[in-house]
Amino acid sequence: MKISSDSEKFIINSCRELFFKWYGASEVREASKRKVPRYKKDGTRHKVDGVEYQCASCGDYYKSGDIELDHKHEVGRGETIEEKLEILLDVENLQVLCIGCHKDKTREYMFERMVGET
Ligand SMILES: [Zn+2]
Q: 118 C-alpha to center of ligand 1: Å?
């Protein structure tokens, strides 16, 4: 299908938003989760444990707000919009990364694309 790159961007971004909205509390996140004991000021243990998620890249554990879902195979690698959507919506293609590792990975990918296009 031939569509303008603006339309393609719009479709991909809308799908990405919906995908993460519906798939926000995904099995991928759950699989990387561990419970950690929490303690009160007096040193006694809280009834409810805290949770942390393991980054698939550096292996460290992070709080929920410090991790992001990443597409292992970047969506932009698809040649056509159909391919991009297929990559975007593939649950098997997701992994949990900490914000730092996700930034590094994105930066590397953008650099690779920039170099590739010149
Ligand atoms: Zn990491």
A: 30
DSSP letters spanning the chain: ----HHHHHHHHHHHHHHHHHHTTT-HHHHHTEEEE--B-TTSPBPSSPEEEEE-TTT--EE-GGGEEEEESS-GGG-SSHHHHHHHHT-GGGEEEEEHHHHHHHHHHHHHHHHHHH-
In the reported structure, the alpha carbon of residue 63 is separated from the centroid of ligand 1 by a whole-number distance in angstroms of 12
At 63-101, the pLDDT tens digits run 999 999 999 999 999 999 999 999 999 988 999 999 999
How would residue 20 be classed by pLDDT, with cut points 50, 70 and 90? confident
